[in-house]
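Lab meeting, item 3. Inverse folding demo.
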């Protein structure tokens, strides 16, 4: 447990994440969740973060090879009620400490939502490039494309996303896993739209990652 200025981070149940993910998050879709933590201000749950197995098995193998695919987790939802300054980085940074090690954490910042990933930059994630936009077969009832309808004529756009990676472990783990990363480590991208004003490049009604 971390407690600073009346904030604390605790494990929460799957059902506790639902109001944040389904009512606040732009995707309105529950991802695979293996670990979930809540940000509490006193006793009020004001934010959640979830980690789960990435939907793409090829991603799990591609990041650091077949031998490390089982330790890959995706930070797949980060949602705040009010997005008060530093809440996002506090939740990300301290929730990472609660995960079992070693782990390779991957997360994405969606360019369609005007996200650059400043919260990841603030918490020392590695930037490994931007995916190309593409289309997928439409999923059933708005679900992920892996639950597609089998109709190749019905497509949905997958926007370009900035990809960030964090290596979680002791000094030896970090050194060894860094050598295994198959993506180039690049300079952080910068946000270009000066008319889009937010705390850390995240919409003011809540984190939408």
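The presenter then showed the designed sequence:
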């Amino acid at each position: 447990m971390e407690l600073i200025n009346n904030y604390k981070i605790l494990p929460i149940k799957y059902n506790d994440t639902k109001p944040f993910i389904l009512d606040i998050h732009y995707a309105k879709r529950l991802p695979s969740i293996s670990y979930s933590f809540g940000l509490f201000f006193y006793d009020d749950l004001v934010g959640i973060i979830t980690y789960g197995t990435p939907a793409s098995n090829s991603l799990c193998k591609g990041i650091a090879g077949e031998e490390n695919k089982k330790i890959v987790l995706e930070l797949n939802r980060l949602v705040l009620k009010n997005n008060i300054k530093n809440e996002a980085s506090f939740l990300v940074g301290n929730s990472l400490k609660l995960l079992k090690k070693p782990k390779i954490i991957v997360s994405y910042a969606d360019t369609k939502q005007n996200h650059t990933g400043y919260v990841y930059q603030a918490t020392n994630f590695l930037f490994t490039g931007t995916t190309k936009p593409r289309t997928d077969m439409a999923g059933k009832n708005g679900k992920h494309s892996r639950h597609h309808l089998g109709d190749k004529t019905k497509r949905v756009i997958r926007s370009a996303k900035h990809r960030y990676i964090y290596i979680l472990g002791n000094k030896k783990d970090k050194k060894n896993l860094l050598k295994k990363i198959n993506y180039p480590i690049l300079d952080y991208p910068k946000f270009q739209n000066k008319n889009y004003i937010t705390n850390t490049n995240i919409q003011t009604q809540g984190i939408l990652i």
